[in-house]
Amino acid sequence: MKLPRRVRDRIAAVLFSALIVFTAVVLTWILRQGYAVHRLTRGVGDTWFLAADGRQWFRMDEHRQDVPLSRIPADLQHAFVAVEDHRFFSHPGVDPIALGRAIVRNLREPGTVEGGSTLTQQLARTLFLSNQKSYVRKIREAVLAVMIDARLSKEQILELYLNRIYLSAGVYGVQTMSQHLFGKPARDLNLAECALVAGLARAPSALSPWSNLDGAIERSHVVLSRMRAERFINEQQEAAARRTRIRIRPYPGANDPRGGYAKEFLRQQFRDRFGGDHPPDWEVQTTFVPELQEAGERAVGDGLRQFSDPELQAALVAVDPRTGNILALVGGRDFRRSQFNRATRSRRQPGSAFKPLLFAAALEHGFSPVSVLSGLTTIKPQGPDEWAPRNASGDTPDSLTLRAALIESNNRAATALQQRIGSRPVLRLASDVGLRDMPDVPSLSLGTGLVTPLDLTAAFAAFPNGGFAVRPRAIVHVMDADGGTALDNPVRSERVISPATAYQMVSMLTDVIDRGTGASARTWGVRMPAGGKTGTTDDFKDAWFVGFTSSIVVGVWVGFDQPKSIGRNGYGSRYALPIWSDFIRRSSKRRAAASFVIPPGLKDEALCSVSYLRPVGGCPTYTEYFKETDPVPGRLCPLHEGTVKQKVRRAVEDFFSGLGRKLKGILR
Description:
Blueprint: H1 5-39, E1 48-50, E2 56-59, H2 74-84, H3 96-108, H4 119-128, H5 135-151, H6 154-164, H7 174-182, H8 191-199, H9 213-229, H10 235-243, H11 260-274, E3 283-286, H12 290-304, E4 313-319, E5 326-330, H13 342-345, H14 355-364, E6 372-373, H15 388-393, E7 400-401, H16 402-408, H17 411-421, H18 424-432, H19 453-460, E8 468-470, E9 475-479, E10 485-488, E11 493-495, H20 499-515, H21 520-523, E12 531-536, E13 542-548, E14 553-559, H22 572-575, H23 577-587, E15 603-608, E16 621-626, H24 644-667
Parallel strand pairs: 1-3
Antiparallel strand pairs: 1-2, 3-9, 4-5, 4-14, 6-7, 8-11, 9-10, 12-13, 13-14, 15-16
């Protein structure tokens, strides 16, 4: 069917306009990249990570050492050329033969994106692109490689490449790798060592000599074979190099350990998104506050020094409850000794620090803070309770309100509460706040699942922020060298509990610090409104305290990398709470705390703080908060003296209450 001329003219106009726009976009990109390539003649910048306030904090390559090509041995240069791009000195930045072979392979195996990358293409990707596999990126990479080859000499390209290549374990450039791996500059490497370094470029993580020396040596033999095939070395040199015994130094860790866990965590977040390569002159806006990071490291260091065992570890995480922004992160006692980040990678049982999620689920399902849990003496105790005075006396009450049970961290009450509401609401809430894959078992209420300190800390944000789950965020956005947005990471939050339930939990967890298992925090200088929860696991293998003010949520874990008993009475209140209190006190100037805001819809009632009933004369009182559907206690407190009128009323109440129980027994 032939289209009308008017329709054809419109289609042609649209296509022509689209062609003009496409051409303009391509030309603009080429001009921008051309200028960027031109700047390479004056040196290469670096990716900067910015603190939360926009100040430059640290570089991607804090320890990279650029050296001229004249200080890189010929064997090392030839090793890279032989194994990565043996036609490097003859092609124009793109190798037509390798490219044709890759195209054929892609056609034979749909879904693969092979590229036949040259050294120049790898340099283009390192400096200007990401590791994302796509045909568009490969085209951009090829164009940039041709532009680089046209602008720079082969020697300049090779020098940039050898100074910028990622070689595993956070190390960039052959000079830094040589120093870390062999304790000497690159110019002093022998042939076997040159082959080993060159072999890392193909798979830096998998072939890291510090974790897979055998694999790295096996790959170096492939490099030596390629060098002989390209006539850079002869058969005798190859054989001698294969016989050479490779000795490497232990991983040196960080020269400057300050902020080491946080900085390496951020670098890894960047690598996860953009690959091991990284471009120059990019900026990564982070959420971290360096002053809080320093305060966290001091709190962990000072806290662990109170105990004699040098193997005892700790982790600390500080999060903004409104946004999920990570403000500080400490993954261990000494980054130089161990780079394992316990704050993000260590999954441990939270113990009683999980209980607030159980209690929040109960409040969402018809309970109030003064709902009573009965029959506790008939429940088998599981794990260590944390209210030492009561445990020491052996006095176990048969009934407790939710508030009292949380203040005391009573395990029998937690078990009874889980039996009453079932595990499904608890598991759902835990998953909603980021604690997934928790086990559906009777001991769920006692924290027998596995969590990281980061995830558990972020989960607590739902209480002070009014009921929203927030996802932890370390990077806000990434800007490329042209000022464009390479990554935008907005705040992600969703309501998981009502504002009323959130505030009831704040009130109960504040009581934990005011007069419960966290009361020591007040003696250690925590004066502002704050709430939190201790946690201790079986055999005292893990000690926790996770708490908050209106402006910050902080979680602390203490334990050993290989779980074992911390020691006798290794409660969270003894090991984790002092570190938490120290950090909260240090951070108060940067994150000022205000009173928690009471949401609309709650009604307040004065109750006796011992019996949790209506007060009489002589009762110590506190303010309880009730949702609209919560029953409010009507009985008077029987534990304190009261006035004559109150005594009479109480006697009447007791008479009718006793009569009701007798009638109930008769009817049964």
